[in-house]
Amino acid sequence: MTRIFLSYSRGDDEPFVRRLYNDLQQAGFQVWWDRESLYTDARNFHQHIKDAIRERVDRLIYIAGPKAVLSDYVREEWKFALEADKVVIPILRVGDFDALPGELSLLHCDDFRDDTQYARQLARIIENLHRPEPPLGKLYAVPSLPLHFLGRPELPRKLRDAVRIDLNRQDLHRPVGVTGATSRVGLQGMGGIGKSVVAAAVARDREVRRSYPDGVIWITFGPRPNVAQLMRDMVRYLGSQEPFESEVQGQGILRQLLLQKAVFLVFDDVWNARDVQAFDVLGPGCRALITTRDAGILNTLHGELYPVDLFTEAEALQLLADSVNVARKALPPEASEIVHECGCLPLAVALCGGMAKAGHAWKEIVAALREADLEWPEDRAAVNEQHRTIWNAMKASYDVLRDTEKPRFAELAVFATDRTVPEAAVQTLWEHTGQINARNCSKLLISLTERSLIQLDQTTDDSGVIHRRISLHDLLHDFAVRIAGEPKTVHQKLLDAYRKKCPDRWHTGPDDGYFFQNLCQHLSDIAGWMEAETTITDFPFLMRKCELRLFETIQYDFSLLMRNGPSEMRERLRQWADFFREKAHILRRGNEEWPAHKILLQLTIEHADDSPLTYGAERWLAEDRCDWLWLRRVPRLPHAQRNPCLVVLEGHSGAINGALAVDDGRILSWSSDNTLRVWDRQNGRGLAVLKGHSSSIEGCLWLTADRILSWSCDRTLRLWDAQSGKCFTTLEGHSAEVRGALFLPGCSILSWSDDRTLRLWDGQVGRCLAVLGELSNSVQGVLALADSKILTCSSL
Question: DSSP assignment of 500-551, as one string?
């Protein structure tokens, strides 16, 4: 039975809501309506509403009217329903369709204003409610929409139609791009025109998510992205833990993961075409949406271009009205002056709306915009009118903050712009610099969000616990950096804040989703190379990171210091980096019985090569910290003290039964996981995965440049295309496990099996040409002799 929540304002048309409630009940639905379902013994009103939406209903019907549009309670209901992946169905009872708020303006809305059409519209909505809801692709790192999102439905709908999958189209790999109509609107990033907001609206669209059941993934680039790390994030979102070192290896892994998946990818804030070209690995069921300031990037990528235009004056006024929660016609005359001063740029308008929402007079806001005086860049010719309006709005919004709030906002410059930051990390910083406790930290973050100074993403887990993460628009981050002062000082404040959270060195720090992932970065930002080296080679610190399964961050820390640190330090760290590169695949196999940090201790003791790594582990053991594993050091022979391993080829999930090398630099391996894999032996990158056998693969032959023969315990042999990984012929006939095969002159294949027979096959079409008489025992081997004779070996 479909369960329904009715979201409405009692000031619109409550008798209509009662009528709808009764009719839906009569139609067999379970309906939650506050007049009948809100119990007086509820813990509190808000929590009861959230519990009902999360646990007791499947769909929410939003009954639109002027009062519902302005109601904070109603807005909270439908926003929470969307966050909880509930279906939201808007219907219009009073007013106009243009008044539908935010994301709801992008949805189909049935018209219930005419009572004479009530029965027909009710029948339609009941039919829709009976229709099962298809599964939605999971969202990965997709940002929330702004607090006062203005729908502008035409462009999101065009984009939605452009990116939805149609397997009959020939341009499935073609990316779709969103750019500003005027390039370089701002000093850095998106320029405040709203491209990322439009992209987020498309990514969250239910029809788009239905088209991509394997997920919607958001990747933020920026001017200097760590492409390999972005690839690792994407691999993790796709459900794999396969390690890799280089972008080339990452491409191979992503190509295989995306080959059979339907995934929608958003590449946000792309500055250079070469960065996103590294992700040119889309499978036939994938599409990409790119946001960029530079239209030339889309031309390079041969993508479709959809420009995002400035707001019209009417749209800018509506955004301003939404920010202060009033109807547009109720705005004062000064609102038009504000919109004009802001140049109709959404970011600037939203900042001014935040000032008005906080209680500042409209005339004061106009005056602040006109009087704003910021230290401009030295190249004044680069400052156009749109630059000026955005910077004036940011400064005016900053100036009206309380004196205690201004430094708190400026301190957010310490966090990078290409990622979201957990609230706990902000609270740690502000507790140190402003003596702000957790409750007041949340209040200040919400206040800054309402002023549009930060973006606050909020999720609620299954137990009802709220998790918040913050981010700053690129331009606002630039502004925060400008007013924060010396960057090293700000980073030092954050490090000092975290020192207070560490009872005994850095390894005792908090697992808050930020500290262990970013400590080394902040140490390098203050050029604290010695402390950074000491930290990432501190064995307890490494143990803790392995316990938290932060393997990628361990390798990133070493590569960061080896890339940016002093030359003498790079040589000292190389041995550590090589160890973790070689052993990462083993650490990833840690489980509840054998956690990764225990495996690390075992591996380092076994390493036994007089390295700082081994001595670090032994010092840790000497402190009597280990009571769960018996370990001893076994000295290696001199020739074994340097690990000769060049690269680890990881991907098989079962025992590897064999491998062979090809002259062109490829390696073929086969496994009890029923697959074959083709590798680049120079860098270990996976080139192809050959799937088709239903049991362990016993052996393989590489016949020609692009043809592979395999045989298996599933009683078959298969011929494969090495480039595409596709099986084009299956050789069936044996009644027991196939033990081996030979490729004979004339493109014939000879196979032998536990069924005590040999079979001769046409290697082109897979047809059996002859069965060589049944033997008394299983055939163990065959040797081709001259004159078309063969020698067989059997067990007694």
Answer: TT-SSSGGG---SSSHHHHHHHHHHHTT-HHHHHHHHT-HHHHHHHHHTT-H
115 pLDDT exceeds 90? yes
The neighbouring-strand residues paired with 684 are: none
- Dihedral of CA atoms 53, 55, 58, 64 in degrees, nearest 10, equals -10
* Count of other CB atoms within 10 angstroms of residue 761: 24
Q: What is the pLDDT of residues 443-476, one digit of tens each?
A: 999 999 988 899 888 877 767 778 899 999 888 8
Span 280-295, pLDDT tens digits: 888 888 888 888 877 7
CA angle 290, 556, 432 (to 5 degrees): 95
Contact 286, 258 (CB under 8 A): yes
3-state secondary structure 17-51: HHHHHHHHHHCCCEEECHHHHCCCCCCCHHHHHHH
Amino acid at residue number 362: W
Contact indicator for 544, 505 with CB cutoff of 8 Å: no
On the 0-12 / 13-18 / 19+ scale of CB atoms within 10 A, 704 is exposed
- The HSE-up count of residue 257 (CA atoms within 13 Å, CB side) is 23
Neighbours of 665 (CB within 10 A): 11
Strands 779-784 and 768-772: unpaired
Q: Are 567 and 604 in contact (CB under 8 A)?
A: no
* 3-class DSSP state of 364: helix
Inter-helix orientation angle 567-587/596-607, to 10° = 120
Distances in whole angstroms, Cα of residue 80 to Cα of each of 13, 32, 51, 55, 86: 23, 15, 10, 12, 9
Contact between 199 and 268 under an 8 Å Cβ cutoff? The reply is: yes
Beta strand extents in 204-244 (DSSP E only) = 216-222
Q: Tell me: pLDDT of 121 over 90.
A: yes
Coil, strand, or helix at residue 378?
A: coil
Task: Using a pLDDT cut of 90, give the percent of the chain over it.
Answer: 33
Over its C-alpha atoms, the chain yields an Rg (Å, rounded) of: 32
Count of CB atoms within 10 A of residue 345's CB? 23
DSSP, residue by residue, 558-595: HHHHHHHS-HHHHHHHHHHHHHHHHHHHHHTT--SSS-
- Mean pLDDT, residues 599-616: 70
CB-count exposure of residue 382 (10 Å: 0-12, 13-18, 19+): exposed
Four-residue CA torsion sign, 637, 642, 645, 651: positive
Element (H, E) at 4: strand 3-7
CA dist 630 and 636 (Å) reads 19
pLDDT at 169 over 60: no
Query: What number of residues does the chain have?
Result: 796
Per-residue tokens: 506: 């850095």
The rounded distance, in Å, linking the Cα atoms of 380 and 382 is 5
Closest CA to 354 of 458, 441, 449, 471: 449
Q: What is the DSSP letter of 60?
A: E
Residue of 683, 691, 751, 749 whose CA lies nearest to 715: 751
Average pLDDT of the chain? 83
381: part of which helix (H) or strand (E)?
Answer: none
Element (H, E) at 759: strand 758-762
**298, two tokens:** 């889309």
Residue with tokens 């490729």: 743
Q: Are 455 and 449 in contact (CB under 8 A)?
A: yes
Q: Are strands 59-64 and 87-92 parallel, antiparallel or unpaired?
A: parallel
Q: Which residues have CB under 8 Å from 134's CB, separation 6+?
A: 210
- Beta carbons of 392 and 398 less than 8 angstroms apart: no
pLDDT tens for each residue of 494-516: 999 999 999 989 999 999 999 99
Three-state secondary structure call for residue 437 = coil
Residues forming a β-bridge with 678: 668, 688
| CA nearest to 589, candidates 238, 231, 236, 243 | 243
